[in-house]
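> example.struct
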């Protein structure tokens, strides 16, 4: 009798298989969201405002632009050439108004 059970194939409707697949995937995604939220909550308890304390310290005033960029004319020429090449235009058509060091 067991051999008869093995010989019979169990056919399931396509909609049932698709629904079961989507259900498992979405259940896994929802579980993943809850795991991420739980880890975030735990880390917030452990870390406790260390980045906020670092951001509260005053920063020194930025150095003057001229002093912080050595060989400024060469830099302007190189930037102009790169922009002209990228845009496919002549370098005389490009006017750079300011360059700031980040």
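> example.seq
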């Amino acid at each position: 009798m067991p051999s008869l059970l093995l010989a019979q194939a169990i056919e399931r409707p396509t909609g049932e298989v698709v629904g079961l697949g989507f259900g498992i995937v979405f259940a896994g995604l929802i579980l993943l969201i809850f795991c991420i939220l739980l880890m975030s909550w735990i880390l917030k308890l452990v870390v406790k405002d260390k980045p906020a304390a670092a951001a509260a310290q005053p920063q020194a005033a930025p150095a003057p632009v001229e002093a912080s960029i050595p060989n400024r004319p060469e830099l302007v020429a190189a930037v102009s050439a790169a922009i002209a090449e990228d845009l496919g235009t002549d370098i005389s058509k490009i006017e750079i108004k300011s360059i700031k060091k980040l």
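> remarks
The chain has a mean pLDDT of 80.
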